[in-house]
Amino acid sequence: MLCIKVLGKGCEKCTNTAALITAIANNHSISINLIMETNPEIIMDYRVVSSPAVVINERLVHWGSTPQQQMVESWLKI
């Protein structure tokens, strides 16, 4: 199971990012644990200054925009 964190203030871009990741994982029967992290102190631990950001298994893979479907699929190894 992949542990995926979406880091941000809970804005529309952040919720859209979480929804996109969840939908793609569900469509491909990939088991994920998705966490929406809004705590600024925790977000700063990842040295993120632009949200939304995506962390997979504690590795920062994206920040600053809503990712494209192809990007998410590559992260999930589809």
Give a quick summary of the entry.
It is built from three helices and four strands.
Topology:
Layout: E1 2-7, H1 12-27, E2 32-37, H2 40-45, E3 53-56, E4 59-63, H3 69-75
Parallel strand pairs: 1-2
Antiparallel strand pairs: 1-3, 3-4
Question: Would you mind describing this structure in some detail?
Answer:
This protein has helices spanning 12-27, 40-45, 69-75; strands at residues 2-7, 32-37, 53-56, 59-63. The two termini are 14 Å apart. The longest helix is centred in the N-terminal third of the chain and has 16 residues, at 12-27. The chain is built from 3 helices and 4 strands. It has 78 residues and is an alpha+beta fold. Helix content is 37%, strand content 27%.
Helix content: 25-40%
What is the CA-CA span between the terminal residues? 14 Å
Poorly predicted runs of 5 or more residues:
none
How many beta-strand runs? 4
Query: Number of helical segments?
Result: 3
Q: How is the quaternary structure best described?
A: single chain
**What is the makeup of the main sheet?**
4 strands, mixed
Strand residue content: 25-35%
Order of helices and strands: EHEHEEH
Could you say which structural class the secondary elements and strand pairing correspond to? alpha+beta
Inertia-based shape: globular
- Provide the residue-averaged pLDDT: 96
Strand order, main sheet: write it out: 2-1-3-4
The value of Rg in angstroms is: 11 Å
Pfam families: Thioredoxin_3
Domain Thioredoxin-like fold: 4-77
Protein name: Thioredoxin family protein
InterPro entries: Thioredoxin-like_fold, Thioredoxin-like_sf, THIRX-like_proc
